[in-house]
Amino acid sequence: MGSFRNRHARVLAATDIPLGGLGLITYSGLYYAEIRIGTPPQRYFVQVDTGSAIFWINCVYCYQCPRESDLGFNLTLYDPKESSTADWVQCKNEFCHGLYGNVLPDCTIGNPCPYKITYGDDGSTLGMFVSDLVQYNQVTGNGQTQPANTSIVFGCGYQQGGSLNTSNGAIDGIIGFAKPNTTIVKTTPLSDNNKYHYSVNLMSIVVGGTVLELPADIFEISETKGTIIDSGTTMAYLPTIVYNEIIPVIFAKHQDIKLRDYDDYFGQCFQFNDSVDFVFPNVTFHFKDDLALNVYPYDYLLEIEGLGTVVFEVVF
Q1: C-beta separation of 146 from 101 below 8 A
Q2: Which residues form the Peptidase A1 domain (predicted)?
Q3: Residue 260 pairs with which residues in a beta bridge?
Q4: HEC profile for the chain?
Q5: Predicted TM-score of the model (pTM)
Q6: Catalytic positions, please?
Q7: pLDDT tens digits for range 132-181
Q8: Sign of torsion over alpha carbons 74, 77, 82, 87
Q9: Confidence (pLDDT) at 138
């Protein structure tokens, strides 16, 4: 599978999260971003840190949490009871097992999953994990944004120490972007079965909530087959059997649309006089380790210019 046309730019711009920063020599340098968490959403300012792997924010139960910041914004303590979508992560939860490598000692049903972190500047935080909706602005087809959300696990900080319990450069929390799977950045492993290409384990394809019924061995990886990552191509190439399954589901609600071949370059095209962004379904590729790649209509339906009418190309 090659990368989708313009996929690199769109991945980087998939969410619109403006960054602020502080670089005074009297402080530790930091980047921070505004995010919204919960239902109804509340605003929080979190430090963006590629050197750590846990996302946490100060909790309403917090001891020694700063109540004000000299960065020019108001701090907010997160209260799970005020969010209808909040839920404590239990110590028997799979996330907690994965984080600690085993079931925690003295873990009983109903007990939450704890965390404790100490940073290089001797700042420290401890608390319990909770899951809730994080609200963000998702970039749509024409460079505009629309509200979106996803449920993630993060720490609810009960106690802060060292540099994290002062108002100097204080923020509501830290969002870690380091490599471990505890970050909100999702990854999927490469396979060693193909010695020529970088292969990934594609598990299933979902179109607008419908799971495609495909042969069990269609995505098997070997030296001659599998799903490869190729930065030198500009489109996604699917096996004929997958293409023939995916197209009818994409156009299931548009039986009046007729696909036709223009030439070998354009492939299958159709006429459509409206925006495709909210009319056609999303296509989601599910990879190993629960990585989901969402492909939006503006990714796989591209408008062709210069043909005298509004024509879209299917780029699978």
Answers
A1: no
A2: 31-316
A3: 269
A4: CECCCCHHHHHHCCECCCEEEECCCCCCCEEEEEEEECCCCEEEEEEEECCCCCCEEEEEEEECCCCCCCCCCCCCCECHHHCCCCEECECCCHHHHHHHCCCCCCCCCCCECEEEEECCCCCEEEEEEEEEEEEEEEECCCCCEEEEEEEEEEEEEEEEEHHHHCCCCCCCEEEECCCCCCCCCCCCCEECCCCCCEEECEEEEEECCEECCCCCCCCCCCCCCCEEEECCCCCCCCCHHHHHHHHHHHCCCCCCCCCEECCCCCCEEEECCCCCCCCCCCEEEEEHHHEEEEECHHHHEEEECCCCCCEEEECC
A5: 0.58
A6: 49, 230
A7: 998 876 655 555 667 778 888 999 999 988 888 787 778 899 988 776 66
A8: positive
A9: 65
Q: Per the structure block, which two tokens stand in for 15?
A: 């969410």
Structure tokens at 143: 């460079």
Instruction: Centre a 10 Å sphere on the Cβ of residue 14 and count the other Cβ atoms it contains.
Output: 14
User: Which structure tokens are listed for 248?
Assistant: 């009818």
Give me the phi and psi of 12, to 5 degrees please.
Answer: -65, -30
